[in-house]
C-alpha cells in the first residue's frame, strides 16, 4: 500500500511539531521518505544522502519530499521586514510561479494581488497545491526561484499590504 498525500503531509507535520526529533525515515514497500529539519546532524544528512543515491525507483517522489536538506543549505529569509507580510510554504515541496511551463507567472515583483488570489504552487509527489495571498497588496519580493525546493513554513514572497488591508 503506497503512502497517500495526506499520509506524507501528516508525517511531515509530526516531524515539524516534535521538539526532540530532527529527522524521520519511513519505508512503505518501495517508497522511502527521508525528512530532515534544518540543522539536522551531519550523520542523519549523510545517511539520507546515501539512501537517496541508492534509490532507482520513485526518485521524483523522494526528491520532492527530501528537500529540507537542500533548502537549509540556501540562505533563506527568516524575519519578515516591518510593513510587509510573508507568503509561506504550506508544506515541503517544489515551488512554481507558473501553472504550467507554457503559461504566464501567477505574479511578479510589483504585481497587485487581492486577498485569495493564487500567487504560486507547491508541488508534492505530483500533487499541485495552490498558495493564495491572505491580503490585498503589492508583491515586493519573490524569495524562491521557480522549480526550487522549499521547506514547510519557508517564506516564499513578501507582500506590502494595501492601505485599507
From TrEMBL:
GO molecular function: acetyl-CoA carboxylase activity
Cross-referenced InterPro entries: AcCoA_biotinCC, Biotin_BS, Biotin_Carboxyl_Carrier/Decarb, Biotin_lipoyl, Single_hybrid_motif
UniProt organism field: Variovorax rhizosphaerae
Function field: This protein is a component of the acetyl coenzyme A carboxylase complex; first, biotin carboxylase catalyzes the carboxylation of the carrier protein and then the transcarboxylase transfers the carboxyl group to form malonyl-CoA.
Keyword entries, A-Z: Biotin, Fatty acid biosynthesis, Fatty acid metabolism, Ligase, Lipid biosynthesis, Lipid metabolism
Highest rank taxon of the organism: Bacteria
Name of this protein: Biotin carboxyl carrier protein of acetyl-CoA carboxylase
Domain Lipoyl-binding: 84-160
Keyword Nucleus: no
Pathway participation: Lipid metabolism; fatty acid biosynthesis
Amino acid at each position: 500500500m503506497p503512502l497517500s498525500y495526506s499520509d506524507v503531509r501528516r508525517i511531515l507535520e509530526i516531524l515539524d511539531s516534535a521538539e526532540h526529533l530532527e529527522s524521520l525515515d519511513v519505508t512503505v514497500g518501495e517508497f522511502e521518505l527521508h525528512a530532515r529539519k534544518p540543522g539536522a546532524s551531519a550523520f542523519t544528512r549523510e545517511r539520507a544522502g546515501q539512501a537517496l543515491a541508492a534509490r532507482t525507483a520513485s526518485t521524483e517522489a523522494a526528491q520532492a519530499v527530501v528537500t529540507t536538506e537542500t533548502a537549509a543549505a540556501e540562505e533563506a529569509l527568516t524575519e519578515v521586514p516591518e510593513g510587509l507580510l510573508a507568503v509561506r510554504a504550506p508544506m515541503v515541496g517544489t515551488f512554481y510561479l507558473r501553472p504550467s511551463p507554457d503559461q504566464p507567472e501567477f505574479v511578479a515583483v510589483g504585481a497587485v494581488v487581492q486577498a485569495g488570489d493564487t500567487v504560486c504552487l507547491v508541488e508534492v509527489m505530483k500533487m499541485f497545491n495552490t498558495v493564495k495571498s491572505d491580503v490585498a497588496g503589492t508583491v515586493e519580493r519573490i524569495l524562491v526561484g521557480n522549480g526550487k525546493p522549499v521547506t514547510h513554513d519557508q517564506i516564499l514572497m513578501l507582500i506590502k499590504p494595501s492601505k485599507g488591508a
